[in-house]
Amino acid sequence: xxxxxxxxxxxxxxxxxxxxxxxxxxxxxxxxxxxxxxxxxxxxxxxxxxxxxxxxxxxxxxxxxxxxxxxxxxxxxxxxxxxxxxxxxxxxxxxxxxxxxxxxxxxxxxxxxxxxxxxxxxxxxxxxxxxxxxxxxxxx
Length: 140
Prior knowledge:
Layout: E1 2-10, E2 13-20, E3 23-30, E4 46-55, E5 59-64, E6 73-75, H1 81-84, E7 90-92, E8 94-97, E9 100-102, H2 104-120, E10 126-131, H3 132-139
Parallel strand pairs: 1-10
Antiparallel strand pairs: 1-2, 2-3, 3-7, 4-5, 4-10, 5-6, 8-9
C-alpha cells in the first residue's frame, strides 16, 4: 500500500493532504519546515515505510521509519502542531489554519484502521511525502 502526503508549507505549520493510491483519507498537520531540526521541524520530503508501534502515551499508533537524523517520528492525534507535535504527523479531519486542524482522533482512527489492515495482510506500507509545488510541476 502506498500513502502520500502532499504538503503546503507556511511559517507557522505545514498542512497536507493524505491519500492512499489516489483516494483521499484525511488532512494532516505538521510543524513548519526548519531544515529537519529535531523537535521543531517537519520531516524531509521523501519515501518512508510505516510500522505499528505501541507506547503508554499514545497506545497503538504508527511510526515512520528511517527518517534521516531523526527518530520516533509518529502519526498520532493532535490539533495544534506547534503545541502538540515534536516532528510527528497528525491526521486531522479538517484544516483550520496553518498547522491547525479539527477532529484529529477521528482522522487518526480512520488512518490507523486502514494501515493496520494492510499490515495484518503482510503488505508493506510506504509513505511518500512531497510538496504541492512538485505536484504542480508534474502536471505541466
